[in-house]
Specification:
The protein has about 230 residues and is α/β, with parallel strands linked by helices. It has a single domain, classed as Rossmann fold (3-Layer(aba) Sandwich), CATH 3.40.50.150. It has 7 helices and 11 strands. The chain has helices spanning about 30-50, 65-80, 95, 100-105, 110-120, 170-180, 195-200; strands spanning about 5, 15, 20-25, 55-60, 80-85, 125-130, 135-140, 150-155, 180-190, 205-210, 215-225. The strands form 2 sheets. Strands 6-7-5-4-8-9-11-10 form an 8-stranded mixed β-sheet, with helices on both faces. A 3-stranded antiparallel β-sheet has the order 1-2-3, with no helix packed on it. The chain is globular and about 45 Å long. The relative contact order is 0.16.
């Protein structure tokens, strides 16, 4: 499929898939979306609500690496340990990665080497990017995920249900629920009623929350099993 690099509303870049009229991040602002949906509403909420000793993150759709990079920066800034697993069926090409401007827009040009390493490090192997940040990239389809109670935070950043409805089903969210420990959180930019109902059907408690710029709402799902 034909792809091109575009600039989003906050000046940060993303990849646009022309055949689908879909992009990896919001056209209103790639960095703004990541900050709001995954860092603020996901990572910070998990810390403030459940305060885990270690944060184990599963990202559904590693893509450009923006969410991983911003999480790395947070972990380094606030000195908390993160084990990060990013799942991606179709890795982004190196020629596209070099055109992404995240380190510049985040004013961390000195971390560009780390962003590059996130993409050049081996798949299926744990890579230590900092004393408190470990990254494992897994090249697999989402329906192949069979982790059990391994994570306490999921960034669900798959392409939208309009173009890939099979990624937003009860079957997929059952896998997400199974992969999470008790007292854990899943966040996504999506807010469709069908997505919320699929989450609730597998046992999540689901909240509709204000979305990032350009989007009215988003969803946060919590796994809190009764003891």
């Amino acid at each position: 499929m034909k792809r091109k690099i575009i600039t989003t509303g906050d000046g940060s870049t993303t990849i646009h898939i022309e055949d689908w009229d879909e992009q990896y991040h919001s056209t209103h602002g790639a960095i703004q979306e990541s900050e709001h949906v995954f860092i603020k509403t996901g990572l910070h909420h998990l810390q403030n609500t459940f305060n885990p000793e270690q944060i184990h993150i599963l990202e559904i759709g590693f893509g450009t690496g923006l969410n991983a990079f911003m999480t790395y920066l947070e972990a380094k800034k606030h000195n908390f340990p993160v084990n990060y697993v990013g799942v991606e069926a179709y890795p982004v090409a190196s020629a596209e990665i070099t055109q992404l401007n995240y380190s510049t827009k985040l004013k961390v040009e000195h971390e560009q080497i780390t962003f590059t390493k996130m993409h050049t490090c081996d798949w299926e192997t744990e890579t230590v990017l900092a004393e408190n940040f470990k990254l494992t990239k897994r090249q697999q389809f989402f329906h192949q995920i069979n982790d059990i109670e391994r994570y306490n935070l999921i960034y669900f950043d798959a392409f939208g249900a309009r173009v890939q409805p099979e990624l937003w089903t009860v079957e997929i969210f059952q896998k997400m629920y199974n992969a999470l420990q008790n007292k854990s959180v899943l966040v996504t930019y999506a807010a469709k009623g069908s997505v919320r109902r699929a989450m609730q059907e597998v046992g999540f408690t689901v909240e509709r929350l204000p979305g990032p710029p350009g989007k009215r709402e988003m969803l946060r799902a919590t796994k809190l099993t009764k003891i």
